[in-house]
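User: Predict structure, ligand adenosine-5'-triphosphate.
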Amino acid sequence: MKRIGILTSGGDTPGMNAAIRSVFKEGLARGYAVMGIYHGYKGLIEGSVRQLDHGDVENIMHKGGTILRTARSAEFMQAGGMQKALDVIRAYNMDGLVVVGGDGSFRGVKALSDAGIRAVGIPGTIDNDMGYTDFTIGFDTAINNVMAEIYKIRDTMLSHDRVGIIEVMGRACGDIALWAGVAAAADIIIVPEIPLPWEKVAEQLTVNKIKGKKTSIVMISEGAGKASDLVKYLCDNTDIESKSVVLGYIQRGGNPTAHDRIIAVRMGARAVELIDEGKTGRAVGIKENRVIDVDIAEAVSTPDRIDASLYAVNATLAKF
Ligand code: ATP
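Assistant: Predicted complex:
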């Protein structure tokens, strides 16, 4: 029987399980046994491989995290580690490998593909920081998680006439701050892609206060600075009382949204289709609500851009 391997790599994201189930079922439909590789590339090197059966993928669509677990592996990036990975893939007679992960994991897909393995990547990261695709698996759940927290924080800030400064994940990508901020009517959104000096933030908050707005919500993406530093700046330079909240891992867990499940299902099926067609070194994505696939080198090199029009709309609304 033909065999496909699947692993999840990098940070876990809600929706990875939906992708695993989709790869399993599409694999069966095309006559493949699907080999689950546990703990990402680390597990691949160690031969942590087991054939998945129906029981493994039953009732997992709604669960956060990844049933295959995930890991980061420095060894995989060295020649010796790569050789071990190739040995394991060949020992298990895998005809192809599907990797769900972020851009680091995709570099691993490229390395495997360059070494002759039929490998395909599915974008799984809450950051939405991959420019070739409109959405990565986990992003929608993350912004819904953040949106819900903003409302809880706003209750307290309103009660105390304070400004809430909420720091969210995203590394160099401001999408979580922007999209969750727009969805929760944040007053100011600070993202790494669009510099906003803190004097301007202070100015806007002061104007809000003069207009009678007793509380404001400021979203700050981790790549644009620390919420605690902004609180200190406001304390030192204005009479605005603010509190910082760092949301941390609560952004990442929990049941995936319908959107994340659906894109995971669609991309999982396409990944198997590509392998079945003999393609290699491809990255699956979603563009204008259609499933696409591009060269993996293009996927890791396409610059990621913030949605400037969404940012501009919010900036205008927040002034009035
Ligand atoms: P997230 O966005 O959630 O952090 P990621 O996939 O970008 O996910 P990384 O830690 O960057 O997470 O990468 C995951 C793993 O991919 C690494 O631990 C490593 O094993 C492998 N990897 C990363 N970069 C490379 C590379 N240049 N070549 C080969 N493998 C790589």
